[in-house]
Amino acid sequence: MSKNYLMTPGPTPVPENIRHEMAKPIIHHRTKEYQAIFKDVTEGLKKIFKTSNDILTFTSSGTGAMEASIVNVLSPSDKIIVTRGGKFGERFGEIAKAYGVEVIAIDIEWGLSPKPQAISQALKKNPDVKGVYTTLCETSTATVYDIKAIGEIVKGTNALYVVDVISGLGADDFENDAWGVDIAVCGSQKGLMIPPGLAFCSVSPKAWKAVQGSRLPKFYFDFKKYKKAYIDADTPFTSAITLVIGLKKAVETINENGIDNVIGEHQKLAKAFREAVKAIGLSIFSKSPSSAVTAVNAPASIDADNIIKLLKTEFGVTFAGGQEHLKGKIFRCAHMGGINEEYTIESIKALEQALIKLDYGFKAGSGQEAAEKVLLK
After folding, report:
1. Cys staple from 135: which of 10, 82, 118, 164, with CB 3.0 to 4.6 Å?
2. Bridge partners for 5 per DSSP
3. Is 231 helix (H, G, I), strand (E, B) or coil?
4. Which domain holds residue 314?
5. Are 311 and 319 in contact (CB under 8 A)?
6. What is d(CA 112, CA 115) in angstroms, rounded to the nearest whole number?
7. 285 with 301, same domain?
């Protein structure tokens, strides 16, 4: 296999037309030329988020936007509810604690999604809670959460509803405004098809009111600074110019196809991969699988990391491994962003070959056949 297939849940492959845009000579960011590009990007992102709210853009990883969603709306000793069912739910809690915010954790078994009634009970028990922080797709477990149902509960309270959509946006269903999300946090290197380096926060009017009373320290991620620049289609600090230019092409591509159609395509890829895995005789780890990424239980006799290593070194396919207690037990394959049918089929073919080399018994070709049945429908 001469071509490499990047199947990790971030970064994802960057399509050729987007790479070409980013290869153009750089321009200055304090110009009308750049401001026009930045404005187009922001308006295009609103269609993808399905929001009329402001979308602020940061030069950072997605974690920077997660931090921004905390420091801009909270004050010391405030309470928030955080759903923790994987590494990224835990990260929200870790950031909050670093700033002296009290975290009421709703811990979920990895691979399961939170029960909305558990959040409802926590809100009733703690009426002074300032925010509910949760995740669309918990990437570490490849699990999608019911953001709509949780939103129905939160919107009847004074708490803000903050959702990490970093890996789920563009692959899992998400409707920022219709589901009552006050801040949605995203990154550039997943469903948006460009390299790492940009992060985003959509900010609702309810969230902007909270910004006015926030007393946590902030400088680089200060929403007020970004809002002031936002009015002029600009950023308060140096923009990642090349990434924004690439993002313009990515956003145009997504919106030309239609965000719902793009989500539908990734749902189809996810279903094809899961059917292939089942045909091979393996099982899916998550009880609520995301369309952005699939986590697969490795055979009991094989370390998942050995599968991943063999795929990369001999077949040019890069999967992701498990984290924490799942290390060596699962492998993860993405379906988001620039990943398409070719990537999906080639990764399944390579997985079959790798398992054969590792002496796992199954009917060769069964995975590819199952996937192609889904893709041909």
Report:
1. 164
2. 317
3. coil
4. 5-11+258-376
5. yes
6. 9
7. yes
Distance CA 8, CA 317 (A): 9
Enter the pTM of the model.
0.97
Q: Is 337 exposed, middle or buried (0-12, 13-18, 19+ CB in 10 A)?
A: buried
Q: Which is nearest to 296 in space by CA: 321, 260, 268?
A: 321
Shared-domain flag, residues 264 and 241: no
Helix (H) or strand (E) holding 203: strand 198-203
For the chain, the first-to-last Cα distance in angstroms comes to 27
The pLDDT confidence band at residue 377, using thresholds 50, 70 and 90, is: confident
Distance, in Å, from the CA atom of 279 to the CA atom of 30, rounded to the nearest integer, reads 55
The span from the CA of 282 to the CA of 299, in Å, is 7
- C-alpha closest to that of 263 among 292, 237, 239, 227: 292
E strand or H helix that includes residue 131: strand 131-135
Q: Within a 10 A sphere around the Cβ of 139, how many other Cβ atoms?
A: 29
Return the half-sphere exposure (C-beta side, CA atoms, 13 A cut-off) of residue 276: 29
- Specify the CATH number for the domain of residue 333: 3.90.1150.10
Residue type for position 30: R
For residue 230, which amino acid is it? Y
Query: Do both 225 and 311 map to the same domain?
Result: no
Q: Report the alpha-carbon distance of residue 236 to residue 222 in Å, rounded.
A: 10
* Joined tokens for residue 30: 């304090």
- 172 and 56 both lie in a single domain: yes
Give pLDDT tens digits for 138-178: 999 999 999 999 999 999 899 999 999 999 999 999 999 99
pLDDT at 1: 42
Residues facing 203 on adjacent strands: 54, 183
Q: Closest by alpha carbon to 65, among 237, 247, 197?
A: 197
Question: In angstroms, rounded to a whole number, what is the distance separating the alpha carbons of residues 263 and 225?
Answer: 33
Residue 22 pLDDT greater than 80, yes or no: yes
Max Cα-Cα span within the chain:
62
Looking at the structure, tell me whether residues 218 and 263 fall in a common domain: no
Question: Which residue's structure tokens are 């926030």?
Answer: 214
In this structure, are 187 and 322 located in the same domain? no
Residue burial 158-191, b: 16+ Cβ < 10 Å; e: rest: ebbbbbbbbbbbbbbbbebeebbbbbbbbbbbbb
221 and 368 within one domain: no
Domain boundary among the residues 213, 235, 257 is at 257
